[in-house]
Each structure stands twice: as structure tokens, then as C-alpha cells.
Amino acid sequence: MQIWIIKDGERSGPFQDFEVRRRINEGEWNENTPAWHEGMKEWGVLGGIEYFRREFQKEPEPVKPPSLGERVIEQKPEQIIASGTDGNLRLGRRFWARWFDLYLYEGIWWIGMWAMGRDIGALLDQTWVMILHFLPWFALEVVLLHRFGTTPGKWLMGLSVLNRDGSKMSLAESMRRTWRVYFIGIGMGWGLLALICQLMALVGTKRLGMPIWDHAGGHQVVAEPLRGARVGAFVCLWFVALQMQMAVVSPYVIERVGKMFPSLKESYEKNPPRHLPKRD
3-state class of 103 per DSSP? Predict the structure, then answer.
């Protein structure tokens, strides 16, 4: 969303939504600042735009003691906000949680393709398949973040994604965040583009104090202390996911590499790894 602003009688813009949020949070603009975006019939104010309304919400009233029999939700004192206020932003945990989810999904996906008798070599040769095969996972992530505020990888790493007021994201908010990650964060998972997007996302995170998808959507990442059992499960499942992928894909990859480097092919033939049999 692009926003135009009138400040001190001068019109300026367009500004991206995350830039508007930043300036609101810094106190440069307030809810009465004149604003307009495409689709509005006339100029209004920032506080009247639904997309930024949460930024101007008043501080919550003091919580009254619960009445007898009323359910009390325990707030964990060890929880910290990992977006914007935490110095290191838990970037390592967030990175590994993200790629754990992707590798786990991809391992299941490749096993599924093999089980259905698909030609694995042909799939590897189709660029559009390698780009779009992550789409089902990101559709599932939309639902997981909306319903639970976390994903398998984030849960194992003790991370949850919430709105700044502590509420879970709506389905629309979860969808916007997820697709920002898909296109901007990992470049659709496509080779060199994925690496470039991750480096750009890292630079943007250092500059904004949080990833652009959280800054743009007004979200926060809540981090809990890592638990030994969860870390152990994380490592084991990561290994399993990699093995599932390699069992299906490695023979075809090594065959292609072997055509370029005959010595590697010879070494592979002498000591072949265990893998699933090819389907006729």
C-alpha cells in the first residue's frame, strides 16, 4: 500500500506502509495527519485508515483481578519480544526455524512424488516445479500462524508470531506476512535468488530493527528459552528430513554432477549411498 501525506502544508509521498508505521511509532506522524491512498474518494487522516488503526490504539486499561471461578491465563515472565526490542532479534533461531519447516516439508514432498511414481529426474529439470513446489507449504503456514501463532520449526525453537497487542494474526494478516516471506524473504526458494533475497532481508532487518514482513504488518516475535528436549527433536527431525530428500534426489543429482566431474562419479559408484530404488 502506498500512502501520500500532508505535513506542514506540504504534500509528500508515496510512502510504503512499513515506512508509515515507522514514522508513526517514532512520533513524526499522528492519527490526525492528513493522508490518502489509491481507492479513497478524498483525503482523510491516518487514524481513519483501517490498516494503521492499531498503531493509535490507547494503552490497555489496568487488568482487574479475576472473579472467583474466572479462568486466568498465565503469562510467562521469561518470554521476550524478539522483534525490535531484543538486541540480537533471535535471528539464528528464526533462520533455522524457517529452513527446518521448509526442509521438513520438502522431504515429505519428495517422498510423496516418489511414492506416486513420478519421474524425479524430470521434476528436477522443470524450473517451474522447483519454484512452485513450496506453495502448498506456505498455504499451510498461513493457517498455522493464524490458528496457533507458530509452525513446527518455530515451536521447536520456542518462537511465536503475534500482533503487537499480543493477539493472534487474522487470516488476512497471516496471509500477507506469509507471502511477503515467500517472495521477499526466500525468493520463492529458487537457488541464487533465494540467497540474494536472504542477504537483502538481513540488511533490511539490521536497518529497521526487525524483518520487513513484521515491520510492515505490525507483528512481533515472542521468544521463550530453548528447551533441551525440543532442541534434540529439532536436530533429529532435521536429519530425518534431509535423509528423506537425499534418498529420493541424490541419485539424480550425482548422475548430473558425474557428467561434469567423472572422478566424482567413479567415487560414487565405488561407494554408493543407500537410497530408495528407482521406479520403472
Answer: helix
